[in-house]
Amino acid sequence: MKKHQKHVKLARPKVGEFGRSEWAILGTPCGNIQQLSYSLIDVLQKTFSVSYVDADHKNENEPSELEVENPALTLGATLEYTDKISHHRFDIKSDLNTFQYRALFNEQDLILVNGNHFKAKNQIVVIDPKKEKSLEKKLNRLTNVDLILMTGEESSIYPFLKDHLNDWADIPVLHFSQTDKIAEFILGNVKLQTPKLNGLVLAGGKSTRMGKDKGSLDYHGKPQREFMADLLSQFCEETYISVRENQVVQSEYKLLEDTFVGLGPFGAIASAMRNNPNTSWLVVACDLPLLDEKTLNFLVENRNSSKVATAIYNPETGFPEPLITIWEPRSYQVILNFLAQGYSCPRKVLINSDINLLKLEEPRVLLNVNDVVGYDKVKSDKL
Q: Which of 115, 182, 339, 368 has CB atoms 3.0–4.6 Å from 24's, for a disulfide?
């Protein structure tokens, strides 16, 4: 008998305790971890958005920061927000769990974690005799050790660590003081995790103004949705054609049916993210007959995977053009947040998010054709 599945099985983002790229540093006193992390942040912040996770190390007899700086929380408030001018600060009294951490760190490229207090998906182990016994008690946290740091010239990898790590001989080893080399190692690993690029042609509209399926129109000797998919396939590992629920389309490309129904392009983008939340999606509408390889190459070459999206500025509207955009994996949560607040406009998502906005030399390629008059004009101009 087939086992009953209680919940729909969804593709899940490849995240750890806090985010997609995270390293717990452990095996040395917390002060050393903090100083190393600060030194790494100073180097890495030039390339990535970096976060740091740690615990309070105040003596229990000292007045807590809560008592000194957060009277609202001591009086019973559960959340306090302070505009600190140079930054913003949220103080939360309630406990946080992994799901809440992931939401808070969603837009971070890299998270450094004090592994003496918290777990993380990947680890950097420090060989420091001061914390040898403590490290031995934390072997269950060593699941993906990527780097080993030595603190002394005569230090060596502990026997219990060799027994625990089957591949210990293959793990790179650096000295704790080699901040630049450690940063270079992390930098390379984060770059290797840059999400691959998939393509999505939006062809699920009802084409009410055109009077016939815009995806079937012939501008270039074939149905427009096929022409656009051919363009995308030059830049993307996999290319899909987005269709609405129960829409019948003949295509050599894979079809991706809307699972967020009745939301137009917003729903199509969210459906692609739901299908694969670990890839970036180059999304284009099928009703852009002037869009060409040069424009897509410009978009891909200037992609910034550290942003929510890379989009093109449309001078006609004065806003980003959401239907020629690379949506990064981190945009999925952002899109769902807008949906939860009652918005289904992808342009509004871009306007209110941290994006890479590009300007074209020839914005004419952004021409959107929605009716017969526009179609006839483009055909008569012979593109």
A: 115
Query: Cα–Cα distances in Å, from 120 out to 50, 64, 114, 140, 309?
Result: 15, 27, 9, 12, 26
- Whether 67 has a pLDDT exceeding 70, the answer reads no
Can you tell me the distance from the alpha carbon of 310 to that of 307, in angstroms, rounded to the nearest whole number?
7
Domains of the chain from N-terminus onward? 22-192 (3.40.50.300), 197-380 (3.90.550.10)
Q: Tokens 């100073």 sit at which residue?
A: 42
**C-alpha to C-alpha distances, 96 to 13, 24, 45, 118, 337, nearest whole angstrom:** 20, 18, 26, 13, 19
Cα–Cα distance between 238 and 232 in angstroms, integer? 9
Q: What is the pLDDT of residue 378?
A: 78
Distance CA 340, CA 335 (A): 9
182/112 Cα distance (integer angstroms)? 12
Q: In what order do the strands lie in the sheet with 122-127?
A: 50-53, 110-114, 22-26, 122-127, 145-150, 173-175
CA dist 225 and 217 (Å) reads 8
The position carrying tokens 């919940």 is 7
Q: Which residues pair with 26 in a beta bridge?
A: 125
Q: Round to whole Å and give the CA distance between 261 and 258.
A: 6
DSSP 129: G
81-136, pLDDT tens digit by residue? 999 999 999 999 999 999 999 999 999 999 999 999 999 999 999 999 999 999 99
Hey, what's the torsion of the CAs at 69, 71, 72, 73, to 10 degrees?
80
**Structure-block tokens of residue 308:** 């929510």
Three-state DSSP at 199 gives strand
Q: Which residue has the tokens 């690993």?
A: 189
Question: Distance between CA atoms of 137 and 284, rounded to whole angstroms?
Answer: 52
Q: Average per-residue pLDDT in the chain? A: 91
Give the pLDDT band (50/70/90) at residue 371. Answer: confident
Closest CA to 354 of 109, 101, 149, 162: 109
**How confident is the model over 291-348, as pLDDT tens digits?**
999 999 999 999 999 999 999 999 999 999 999 999 999 999 999 999 999 999 999 9
Q: At what angle do helices 293-301 and 224-233 cross, to 10 degrees?
A: 40
